[in-house]
């Protein structure tokens, strides 16, 4: 494995961590409704926990409202039960064909709670990036020990991985700022 391959591996792993963080952040409630808030809620469908987005169409007709229209209306009650267990702060209303979620405005306390949750997620992602850096540096050291890299090449590779880490940590900081601003936006 060459230095370039190690850097390519680092980039791929860092990108994967950022993508995971973005996916997690989508499910955090802000002042506006989002399909991501309910897409991955699991509903017991004939004994199998199935995400709602595979069983229904989800739409946002108004800034604080989510409409869920199941493909199979017989599963409406199960969907309602699953949504009641979520941390959305509202109860779904059903009319026999659709579920309607009217999201109340976030209180200051809720905004702070969601902001703290986002910060925690970002810190977990930073830790994942640092663990990846540690693994790659160990791999680089092993390559030097096996004679695949010289001492200078190993040192340079450590620096390049560190520079890459800083770049991705900056991306996490930007995602954090953006999401906290969305949450705090009244």
What does this structure look like?
Helix 1 packs antiparallel against helix 3, helix 1 packs parallel to helix 4 and helix 3 packs antiparallel against helix 4. The chain has 2 domains: 103 residues, Orthogonal Bundle (Topoisomerase I, Chain A, domain 4), CATH 1.10.132; 68 residues, Gyrase A, domain 2. The strands form 2 sheets. It has a 4-stranded antiparallel beta sheet with strand order 3-4-6-5, with helices on one face. It is α+β, with helices and mostly antiparallel strands. It has 4 helices and 6 strands, in the order H-E-E-E-E-H-E-E-H-H.
Question: Could you write a compact summary of the structure shown?
Answer:
The protein is an alpha+beta fold and 186 residues long. The chain has helices at 3-26, 76-84, 108-145, 151-184, and strands at 42-45, 48-51, 56-62, 65-70, 93-94, 99-102. It is built from 4 helices and 6 strands.
